[in-house]
Amino acid sequence: MSAEIVHHELDLDLAILARAETSGEKTFRVWSVEDPVVVVGRSVDAAIEVNTAFCSQNGIPIVARPSGGRSVLIGAGSVQYAFAAPYSLAPELQSIAGSKRFCNRMLQAASPELAALTEDESGDLMHDDRKVAGLALKRGRSAMLLHGTILVNADLELIAQALHHPQREPAYRGGRTHREFLANLEELDTRRLNDRVNELMAETAQG
C-alpha cells in the first residue's frame, strides 16, 4: 500500500508540473507517508545505491521518481514537498542553481525552523554541517518541478541500513556515512509551511 501511495503522490507532482507548463499555475504542496519507502532518482541504479536485500527482508518498497537526485528513504518522521512553477515567475528559475536558491529561500522565509538552517551550494539545507533537507529537479520546456525531503524525526538508523553510500555526493559530505552525515530538524509546522510558501509565491507573481 505504501508504494501505491508514493506513486500517487509523485503522479500529483507531475500533474502540478503539467499545470505550470500549460497554464502558468504555480503550486507548492506538502505530503507524507507513514511506512518506509525508498525513492530513487530517475538515473539511479537501485542495485548500487540501495540495500535491496535489507529492503526486501523488511518489506520496504523501492519507487523511482521522475526527477534527478540520489536515493532517499521516506516515511514516518520525514516530510515531502514539491514546487511547480513557470520559469516566468522569477528570473532565478531559468537556471538549475537559481531554482534551488529560489525554492530554499521560500522554504526558509516560511518556516522559523528552516530559517535556522544553512544552504549548501548543492541545495541541501544543513544544521551544523549535517544534512537536514535535500531536493531534486525536473525541468520542462517552460516550467520546473522541484521536490524534496525534510528530516524531522526520521529513523536515521533505518536510513543507514536501507541505503548504501551514494555514487555521487556534495563536497561538504566528505565521505561521511549516513549516520555521520544526516540530522533531524525535530520540529516543523507543515500547515504553516504550506500556507506561507503559497502566499510568498503569490506575492512573487504580483511583484
What key phrases describe this protein's structure?
alpha+beta, BirA Bifunctional Protein, domain 2, six-stranded antiparallel sheet, three-stranded mixed sheet, 8 helices
Descriptive notes:
The protein is α+β, with helices and mostly antiparallel strands. It has a single domain (2-206), classed as Bira Bifunctional Protein, Domain 2 (BirA Bifunctional Protein, domain 2, 2-Layer Sandwich), CATH 3.30.930. The chain has helices at residues 2-23, 46-49, 52-57, 96-110, 112-115, 156-162, 178-181, 190-206, and strands at residues 27-31, 37-40, 62-64, 72-74, 78-86, 118-119, 125-127, 130-139, 143-151. Helix 4 (96-110) packs across helix 8 (190-206). The longest helix has 22 residues, at 2-23. It starts with a helix and ends with a helix.
Total number of helices: 8
Report the C-alpha radius of gyration, rounded.
16 Å
Q: Mind describing the biggest β-sheet? A: 6 strands, antiparallel
CATH level-3 fold name: BirA Bifunctional Protein, domain 2
Count of DSSP strands:
9
Which whole number gives the mean pLDDT?
95
Helix content: 25-40%
List the secondary-structure elements in sequence, H or E: HEEHHEEEHHEEEEHHH
Number of domains: 1
Strand content: 15-25%
- The low-confidence runs, each spanning 5 or more residues with pLDDT under 50, are none
Quick summary:
This protein is an alpha+beta fold. The chain is built from eight helices and nine strands.
Topology of helices and strands:
Layout: H1 2-23, E1 27-31, E2 37-40, H2 46-49, H3 52-57, E3 62-64, E4 72-74, E5 78-86, H4 96-110, H5 112-115, E6 118-119, E7 125-127, E8 130-139, E9 143-151, H6 156-162, H7 178-181, H8 190-206
Parallel strand pairs: 2-3
Antiparallel strand pairs: 1-5, 2-4, 5-9, 6-7, 7-8, 8-9
Helix pairs in contact: 4-8
